[in-house]
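Dear Dr. H.,

I hope your travels went smoothly. While you were away I took the liberty of generating a structure for the chain from your last submission, since the lab meeting agenda had it listed for discussion. I wanted you to have the full record in hand beforehand rather than looking at slides cold. The sequence, exactly as received, is reproduced here:
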Amino acid sequence: MHVNAALSEEIINRITAILAAAEILDNNIDLEMNERQAFLNVIHAEALQLEQHIRTIQC
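The corresponding predicted structure, in token form, is as follows:
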């Protein structure tokens, strides 16, 4: 299975966004609930996009 460079970079960028948002949540316990929710939304949205990319690779 061969993944083109653009798709590979897109997957890496999405993983990086997920990791960054999770790290911010972990390191900032004083965040307001709406700020925490915003980071959780980023994690959710990026994970959904990542899932779509993986399903594309599998086809």
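Two observations you may find useful: The mean pLDDT is 93. The two ends are 10 Å apart (CA to CA).

With kind regards,
E. W.
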